[in-house]
Specification:
Oligomer: single chain
Structural class: alpha+beta
Distance between the termini: 33 Å
Order of helices and strands: HHEEEHEHHHHHHHH
Strand content: 5-15%
Radius of gyration: 19 Å
Shape: elongated
Strand order of the largest sheet: 1-3-2-4
Number of strands: 4
Helix content: 55-70%
């Protein structure tokens, strides 16, 4: 990512910070969480939250590695489908990104891989969803404290500080860098081109050198589809018994799920 693109992101963040902070606080309230310190395992927090709102979270490998997640709403159920062909840190960010779309956008979207590469898509809803995800994954007070702690441990080395933050918050490298800029923990002149454009291989090497958990950089390839279809069948039968839906509706839900699954897998 070049510095001009980063400046546009930070400019958007500065203008819309208060609005997105309000939306993060709304999520905390809806999820019955007291503050950002409670977000230790984002999947564990968000999965039941989505389920209560008629969305099921599904992890599966996509054939297209440029899509981080799909958000789809059908007549009866919605689906958040996360691409496990991507590193775990990217999946975590995509989940928080999709949370914004579900709560505040209310439309079906295909989300590109934000912050995984230089392919940052510059339009209003994507800027907003990324800012929301960054705030949710890396709350301001805790993040500022950990930045100072890790910078001291890194003897002032900015790249190692970012790597340690990336490991601690299990967030993408570029999302961590952007968060540092948003909170004015660093300035334009203190980040070299090498740090700004660190590639996946160099990041992996630093993880190993610093004795960090490099598994979060790997794709899990987890595929939840079989489990999901079983859960939907059980849920559908309960809805049929309670007269919320009929057999025909469940049939179409399952048919649409299988169609979407085939599309995602590239079949």
């Amino acid at each position: 990512m070049n510095i001009e693109k980063l400046k546009r992101i930070i400019q958007y963040s500065d203008i819309h910070k208060t609005d997105i902070e309000t939306k993060v606080e709304k999520f905390y309230t809806l999820a019955e969480m007291s503050n950002g310190k409670d977000v230790l395992n984002i999947m564990q927090i968000v999965r039941p939250f989505f389920k209560e709102r008629g969305y099921l979270v599904l992890e599966m490998p996509f054939s297209d590695n440029e899509i981080g997640a799909l958000c789809y709403r059908g007549d009866a159920l919605g689906y958040i489908v996360l691409n496990t062909s991507l590193p775990k840190v990217t999946v975590n960010f995509a989940l928080c990104h999709e949370l914004y779309h579900v709560l505040f956008q209310k439309s079906s979207v295909k989300t590109k891989v934000e912050f995984a590469s230089d392919n940052y898509y510059e339009h209003e809803e994507e800027f907003a969803a990324n800012l929301f995800a960054g705030m949710l994954m890396m709350p301001e007070a805790g993040f500022s404290y950990m930045y100072k702690k890790f910078k001291k441990e890194s003897e002032g080395n900015e790249e190692d500080t970012l790597i340690r933050l990336m490991n601690y918050y299990q967030a993408p490298y570029m999302a961590v860098l952007v968060r540092c800029y948003e909170l004015r923990l660093t300035d334009n002149d203190s980040i070299s081109e090498e740090v700004m454009n660190a590639d996946q291989e160099s990041i992996r090497e630093r993880f190993i050198d610093l004795w960090l958990d490099s598994s979060i950089l790997e794709a899990t390839k987890r595929d939840d589809y079989a489990h999901l279809e079983l859960a939907v069948k059980r849920m559908g039968q309960e809805y049929i018994e309670d007269a919320y839906i009929n057999d025909r509706t469940l049939y179409y839900v399952l048919r649409n799920m299988r169609k979407l699954y085939a599309e995602i897998k590239g079949e």
